[in-house]
Amino acid sequence: ELVARGAHVLGFDGNDELLGVARSRALANAEFERCDLREFPELGLEAEGLWCSFAAAYFPDLPAVLASWTGHLRPGGWVALTEIDDLFAHEPLSERTRQLLEDYVGDSLAAGRYDFRMGRKLGAHLERAGLRVSRALRLADQEFSFPGAARPDVLAAWRSRFERMQLLRDSSGPEFERLEADFLGCLARSDHRSLAKVYCSIAVKSVE
């Protein structure tokens, strides 16, 4: 989308597989590099905008990380962050499943690995990093925030997500398979309700 609007895009990620997919599209005026986003590389230029989707939650100390990112942003430049809030907030789930997931969410935040409730904090974190929030949006999302039964492709995506969550498997121990079955069964129900939300906050760097 950014390239289509005439932008020269510099894309950064820590995952080689995702970078390979991005590069395979051979987009004109787009470069993709691997880096640790906590230690942003020296660009040698001032960017006009910074777009970040579903990555902010990996940085519970987001204001400090944002400060390093926006050091490469020109005055008056924009930042757009999109993030989910309360990923596992789906009903109906058993009380035990909810407790296991809540324990995992709490442990992830305490360890500084991931903030599962980052979405609601985006605006405050942007302001704490010295930016002015110009828009705050709640976005429709067919994978994370939707009513009723999930589509087959959405269920497949959630199965794949659970396969990657080794730390959740470890923390749940012998109850993991039951937890997974309960959660996927919940998503497949016609009376499924999602309390998870997807937020987008757009902010501007001061020209002073």
Task: Please provide a written account of the structure.
By secondary structure, the protein is of the alpha/beta class. It contains seven helices and eight strands; from the N terminus they run βαββαββααβαααββ. The strands form three sheets. The chain has a four-stranded mixed β-sheet, with helices on one face. A two-stranded parallel sheet has the order 1-2. Strands 5-7 form a two-stranded antiparallel ribbon. Strand 1, helix 1 (16-24) and strand 2 form a beta-alpha-beta unit. The chain is globular, with a radius of gyration of 19 Å. The model has no long low-confidence stretch (mean pLDDT 94).
Keywords, separated by commas or semicolons:
four-stranded mixed sheet; about 210 residues; 8 strands; alpha/beta; two-stranded parallel sheet; about 25% strand
In short:
Helices cover 36% and strands 25% of the residues. The chain has helices spanning 16-24, 62-70, 95-110, 122-128, 152-164, 166-172, 176-188; strands spanning 9-13, 30-34, 47-53, 73-85, 90-91, 131-139, 193-194, 197-205.
